[in-house]
Design goal:
It is built from 14 helices and eleven strands. The chain is α/β, with parallel strands linked by helices and about 375 residues long.
């Protein structure tokens, strides 16, 4: 059975750290906490779980802090988490079973990262990350902000999920780091440019965000998933700026990087709905439902665009075409995911009344198309 060192960097996490460590402590053999300057009770909370607590002088570089934490590990494998992450009980048990069964020749184990969920517990936003790595390989973190762990060799994709339970307490931190580096004339990598644009967009600095997203795409050196995401974010920026032609341009540009993704199909579907072109809107919403993510999909994905949302919009489109039974079927499919959504419930009442007037019994059991 392998052994695992959990390595974490923290700052002012007294409200989240205990929840995180409680969710993973049974599955690891060593807990290393690197504090980058807490002024609250973070270290006292950490001492409930470990005495392996260290201080790192913060230098606006997440990779430097993470690499320092990794250098302190002594077990065969290193697991990393942030203080606002947790392992659900079933995922902690999966990790324990993985310890017992993992081939020691494995260099890295990827895990899902659940970033959002709806009120019914359905995961809506997720991606995949290298999460457990072999210490002897000496893998390093790269990038001052939005850092990534560069790995190679034998990689195993697991079904273990880390669940993010964060908040916006530090929402200005990353943007300020990038702005300081920009003022210092630090050369940005393509990845830096992309994530800097993300921070600008998140702060509603749309025109500046557009400049850096377009710079990122024009350089032609980005990861394909970041290229696709940048197209979507540019469409969002231009929508916010009221430029519908540029919004469409970048929606379509996403097709340069691969087959249509659900979020772009839904964008196009909505555009044609606005034009009352119901047949074309139906085509694009059906395309969204046909998307099947690869088993080892690394890009961020929002499941809403491939599940309930296109079904809900198809309900509207078929209603406009007076195809009430099909509209009802799609609304029921949406209700499977969103049983209490006001629009879904309103549609159900309206369509059942419509079908009753037309003497067409509504179907109570339908497929997901």
């Amino acid at each position: 059975m392998i052994t695992i060192s959990l390595c974490m960097i923290v700052k002012n996490e007294e409200h989240t750290l205990e929840r995180c460590l409680s969710s993973v402590s049974r599955a690891v053999d060593q807990i290393i906490i690197v504090d980058t300057g807490s002024t609250d009770g973070t270290r006292e909370t950490a001492r409930k779980f470990t005495d392996d607590i260290h201080f790192f002088d913060w230098i606006d570089d997440f990779s430097a802090a993470r690499n320092f934490s990794f250098s302190l590990a002594t077990c065969e494998y290193v697991l990393w988490l942030d203080a606002d992450d947790i392992l659900q009980e079933e995922d902690q048990m999966k990790l324990i079973r993985l310890k017992e069964s993992l081939d020691p020749r494995t260099d890295s184990v990827t895990m899902l990262y659940h970033l959002g969920s709806d009120p019914y517990g359905n995961v809506t936003v997720q991606l995949r990350r290298n999460r457990l790595v072999k210490r002897s390989r000496g893998f390093r973190w790269i990038g001052a902000v939005h850092e990534y762990l560069e790995v190679s060799g034998r990689i195993v994709d697991s079904d273990i999920a880390v669940t993010h339970r964060g908040d916006d307490r530090n929402r200005d931190r990353n943007l300020n780091i990038y702005l300081r580096k920009l003022s210092q004339k630090v050369e940005f990598t393509p990845r830096d440019t992309y994530y800097f644009a993300n921070e600008l967009m998140d702060h509603h600095l749309y025109e500046m965000a557009v400049f850096y997203y377009e710079k990122f795409l024009n350089e032609g050196c980005g990861w394909v998933e970041d290229n696709i995401a940048a197209c979507g974010k540019l469409a969002d920026c231009y929508h916010a700026l009221g430029n519908r032609s540029k919004e469409l341009l970048y929606t379509l540009k996403s097709l340069e990087y691969g087959k249509p993704r659900p979020e772009f199909c839904c964008r196009l579907g909505f555009r044609y709905m606005e034009q009352a072109d119901w047949e074309t809107a139906i085509f694009w919403y059906r395309q969204a439902l046909e998307w099947t993510a690869p088993k080892s999909h690394w890009g961020i994905s929002n499941q809403s665009y491939a599940t309930w949302l296109p079904h809900l919009q198809l309900c509207v489109c078929y209603d406009k075409l007076s195809q009430y039974e099909t509209a009802y079927e799609h609304n029921e499919a949406a209700r499977h995911y969103q049983p209490e959504h006001p629009s879904v419930l309103g549609n159900k009442t309206y369509l059942e009344s419509r079908l009753k007037r037309n003497d067409i019994p509504p179907r109570e059991s339908i497929s997901d198309d």
